[in-house]
Amino acid sequence: MLAMRRELQQYRQSGPMAEAAVADPHRLIQMLFEGALERIAVARGAMEQGNIRVKGEKLSQAITIIDGLRTCLDHGKGLDLAEKLEALYEYMSRRLLEGNLRNDLGALDEVSRLLREIKSGWDAIPQMLRQAS
Fold first, then answer.
1. What are the tens digits of pLDDT across the range 20-51?
2. Which domain range does residue 74 map to?
3. CA distance from start to end of the chain
4. Residue 132, domain member (yes or no)
5. Residue 88's CB: how many other CB atoms inside 10 A?
């Protein structure tokens, strides 16, 4: 049983890495959104269960991903939008830190809603414009 769990974990880890290896830049950003949302969801569950270690690890990982999204912003194209997204990403990171410190599920839910909203806009970019991103 332990070997099966280890193999399942290796599969879970290799799946996203394999996809990232062949993904276009647009898909990579989608994967970052998905990864942040997944980690916040796991942290939320850990918070509800009182698992401080997992909560902290997953929120730290989510903040790292959000920081990665921030560094991917292209200030050369759409400067106003890039500046607004940068401020929003910084706000989300702060809210996750606060949520972690205060065990505030509302902060995690707020950041998840914001990420889903941005992701839905990103997902809606027409295929013909994705090549330019």
1. 666 688 889 999 999 999 999 999 999 999 99
2. 26-121
3. 45
4. no
5. 17
